[in-house]
Write a structure and sequence with these properties.
Helices cover 50% and strands 0% of the residues. The protein contains three helices and no strands. It has helices spanning 17-25, 29-38, 42-52.
């Protein structure tokens, strides 16, 4: 199983970070977005992920 954390190409609101995390863990992207709203340092974590995660390959 070669599973990597990547930005989502299909479930994007801004950069695809929450969608990518949701795909990786197999949970709803809505739940991940709620976690980002309630985390104290959510903006910093989102910016770091947006700059470091690679894009997922486009699906055909």
């Amino acid at each position: 199983m070669d599973k990597k954390l990547r930005k989502s190409s299909s479930d994007k609101s801004i950069a695809g970070i929450c969608g990518g995390i949701a795909e990786y863990f197999g949970i709803s992207s809505f739940m991940v977005r709620l976690l980002f709203i309630f985390l104290p340092s959510n903006l910093l974590i989102y910016i770091i992920f947006a700059n470091t995660l690679s894009d997922s390959p486009p699906s055909l």
